[in-house]
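Q&A log
Question type: sequence-to-structure
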Amino acid sequence: MSVTATIRIQQADFDVAQEIAALSKGRSDVGAVVSFSGICRGSEQGEPIAALTLEHYPEMAEAEISRHADEALARWPLQGLTIIHRFGRIAPGENIVLVVTASAHRQAAFEAAEFLMDYLKTNAPFWKREESARGTNWIEARDHDDAAAARWTKS
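Response status: OK
Response body:
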């Protein structure tokens, strides 16, 4: 059976439990579902954050996320895959991103979810601007995120 990834880039919030249920409903071939939801923090290094604003180029973001979803489907025996990434202004406590993977066994579901989150964190074409009492600033890439993503590179 061919598995197609569900990918949505949207401004509206999403319901994590509803997305997990939709991926696994009526499936007897799924033995593991792994989900990761990224949530906007209210502070960074002790400094309060008012909000994040995520910007993207829609066609490029959709194509790049689809390409990495296809890679995950090729690398692991998944029965289902959902990726949702929000854009726009996001307040502390609100959802930013969701990755849900379903497989017959947990290891594939965990590894595929981790692979996709490492990619989304480092290479997905989204730009984050942080609002705080000191003003706004663009968030730079972090070395530890790049190191996490590098471990998935095939040599």
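Response note: The beta strands are 6-10, 32-39, 43-44, 47-48, 51-56, 78-86, 88-90, 95-103, 126-132, 135-138.
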